[in-house]
Give the backbone structure.
Amino acid sequence: MDFWSDTLKKPVNIVAPMVDASELPWRLLCRRYGAQLCYTPMLHSAVFCKDPKYRKESLASCGEDNPLIVQFCGNDPKIMLEAALLAEEHCCAIDINLGCPQAIAKRGHYGSFLQDEWELLHEMVSTLSKSLKVPVTCKIRVFEDMEKTVRYAKMLENAGCKMLTVHGRTREQKGPLTGLANWDYVIAVREAVNIPVISNGNIQCLQDIHRCLEYTGCVGVMTAEGNLHNPFLFENTSPPAWIPAMEYLELVDKYPCPFSYIRGHLFKLFHHVLSISSNNQLRIRLGAANTLDQFKCIVSELKDLYQPYHDGKLVWGETHEKGSFNLILPPWLCQPYVRLPPEEHLKKVEEKKANEDLNSKRHYEDSDGNLISRKKMKKLRRINRRPPKPENCSFRSMDLCPLCKINPLFF
């Protein structure tokens, strides 16, 4: 508890480590509006050790960026230690990612796909804990079995973990199957260990933070997706999306980062207005933007479109497309993105599949009106898209035909 209170200064509002999203400019924006602890994005330990450029970009920070925890993923205790030793002078702690459920983590054999290898994890945590000047922390997902989850947490504590973040979802709960995090698992872990426990999951607004703290008894809460859609949520405000967007771009001016990060943040901030069909061209332009000026221009155009509604000079009402998706707040304001419950998503998938099967039998016909398979129709469409071969078109080699200028292999 000394680490949490003395070093970290008792943070309650915590921004999660997010791949390609919790970089320095975003962290600084969040700290301006109530974030008390931030993490770097998840860093690949092997790449961090080998690539000086990756290492320099990953450790980008400044005096305002404190307290900061650096998070690594990996599956080799020696490589993890090598990476941690290179980073320990730049942070308050080293966090081990044991929660990533994505396919890339499965291929790389790290994150939540290590959660059954307790001997390896014990060695990894204990190796870092004994060798570093700074504490080691862990971020985990839960098992379906609550007792196993508790044993897992206690094993990590015994190995030397000094703070534990518990994401109350299983490895399988991701994407459209995310569903709600179960805070009861968080409570069970908190009651079983003697180190600070942070709750992760279901944090979309300030009221969620209060409910979570009261229900779980944790020392703090961590938010990821809720923060990306509204970096002001710790202050309980929902500003027009162009306000944090412009502030963020000003910070990027000072602390440059990859354009892919910028693009991702703007898509999240403007998610609801970019989902309105009349803004499709702006959405396409944002996806193709590759200069800071282009990003700034798009944000300014979105502001010009919606500022009159925000100021009350124009009325946003029933005549507008329900691209607002029955939102309580107008679509230009920062607010949570609420997913469909998993059961509803699965039902829609089944309905779509049934409709596709039905339509495929009714509508896939050849030029003579005969029913054909979807595969055969796709083949016919490919053939029809090919340009006609001119008369007297001939060639003997791989050279382009002098008449049609098309490689012979095309035919």
User: Anything to note?
Assistant: The two ends are 71 Å apart (CA to CA). The beta strands are 13-15, 37-44, 68-73, 93-98, 136-141, 161-167, 197-200, 220-223. The mean pLDDT is 89.
